[in-house]
Specification:
The protein is α+β, with helices and mostly antiparallel strands. The protein contains eleven helices and eleven strands. It folds into four domains: 40 residues, no CATH class; 60 residues, no CATH class; 53 residues, no CATH class; 100 residues, Endonuclease, Chain A (3-Layer(aba) Sandwich). The radius of gyration is 26 Å and the shape is elongated.
Length: 298
Amino acid sequence: MASWQAGDAGLSSRQMENLVRVGRWQRVYYGVYASFTGEPARGAVLWAAVLRAGPQAILSHETAAELSGLVDKRSKLLHVTIPESQRVRPTAGFVIHRSSRILEIRDPDLPPRTLIEETMLDLAQDAASFDDVVSLLARAFQRRLTLPGLLRQSVDLRTRLRWRAEILQAVEDVASGAHSALEYRYLRDVERAHGLPVAERQARAVQNGRVIYRDVLYRQFGVAVELDGRASHPAEQRARDNRRDNVSASEGVLTLRYGWPDVTERPCETAAEVAAVLGQRGWPGPWRRCRRCPERRP
């Protein structure tokens, strides 16, 4: 309970302090009290943060992302958004944001927080790279936290937005199956930039009685592309990949595997390789040079 709520509860600030003094309550933040003793649970801490920031405050950014399940780690700092006209005393461990749309961006769930779409865009604005933004979008769609149409509406409502056009394009690509930053980079910088045929993404197949999903599948030509962004690739995983590739080959599907450097540092070489294999499998081409390609194709 916050001191600004005391009147509604029939208490005075002095009475609340007395309850703390005799050990029945505890102070969580300045002017915010818990009516129990012992270590407050995370939910109580988040509620206390909202109360500390004032009547219209809502949790936002990393803290709202934690609540919605968009991120798996607790936010180290407590992010709270308040109306532009409101003032709040600085508090250690808090990051205060201000918004002129506080009622529009508020999620009805409790504790009060920003809508998941607003949370995603807030995090996108603070992202170190656009790859981080794509990873964020992919995680949200895979966890079914939002829909492309809802996110596009939130984008349209923002007068200022970093990477606006790129986000709108990535929403479409991620929703259609680019499930990671690496898969998005392949689609943008290898396939689309070089005029390769449009592939299926997360293509479902049954192999030895088990359902598998191929990252990229050029079904008409029997060519699959698997993308692995992991820095390390243990021997056990490599063995599983080899077995899967061998079975795919026996079924008429040739698998090409690429990692992060192949797609981000050598996209033109990778495109040339994929185009060559597709050509061997009947694709008439041609593939085209992008602005990054050398004057002569490999």
